[in-house]
Structures are given as C-alpha cells and as structure tokens.
Design a protein that fits this description.
Elements: H1 18-33, H2 35-41, E1 48-54, E2 58-64, H3 70-87, E3 91-94, E4 105-106, E5 112-113
Parallel strand pairs: 2-3
Antiparallel strand pairs: 1-2, 4-5
Keywords: Ribonucleoprotein, Ribosomal protein
InterPro entries: Ribosomal_eS7 (IPR000554), Ribosomal_eS7_CS (IPR047861)
Protein name: 40S ribosomal protein S7
Length: 114
C-alpha cells in the first residue's frame, strides 16, 4: 500500500518527527489531489523538514531534499512552494534555492563595508 511514509526517507533506524510526517502527508495529498503535479511528484521524496521561528512571530518550513533529486525539485519548486504554503497557512515554505545570503564584509577595525 502506498502511503505518506513513502514521501519521507530517513536513515535506517531513525523515525520521522510528527512535523515531518505532516509535511510528508501534504506531499502525498498534493500527489493524489493535484493532477498538474501528480506525475512530477511521483518519484520525489524528502529527507527532513524543519519548522523555524523567524522575525515577527512568523514560522518558516525548511524542506531538505536529496541531492540527486535536486533537478526534478527545482523544475517544480515554484508550484510546489505555492501549494505547500496553502496547506501550511501562516507559515512560509522555503526551498534552499530561494535562500540568498547577504554578503557583509568587515574592515580590520571592525567597521562594515560592502
């Protein structure tokens, strides 16, 4: 039987957390309910999902995917993030390709410059 547990793969002997099960269930529901994403999500799975607190009492969901599935996820990540944000209302869903760090350089005296 195909279940949401197939959408998350952990190391041997490690059980997924309750939140990771929730994210895996959301992936499973998207695969079964959204015809547009069904064929793309068929062979995809996640490694971990983390819920983080960010500024302004907001929460973000960070989803880690296996490196070898990076290209298929990148192909659908805009639609996938949009659908997951609907499922996790009030939380931001972040795909690592969207995270861009700001470079800050420091002088020897500790002053910042760009």
């Amino acid at each position: 039987m195909y279940t949401a547990r197939k959408k998350i793969q952990k190391d041997k002997g490690v059980e997924p957390s309750e939140f990771e099960d929730t994210v895996a269930q959301a992936f499973f529901d998207l695969e079964n309910g959204n015809q547009e994403l069904k064929s793309d999500l068929k062979d995809l799975y996640i490694n971990t999902a983390i819920q983080m607190d960010v500024v302004g009492n907001r929460k973000a969901v960070v989803i880690h995917v296996p490196y070898r599935l990076r290209k298929p996820f990148r192909k659908i990540h805009v639609r996938l993030v949009r659908e997951l944000e609907k499922k996790f209302s009030g939380k931001d869903v972040v795909y690592p390709a969207e995270i861009v760090g700001k470079r800050v350089r420091y002088r020897l005296d500790g002053a910042k410059f760009s």
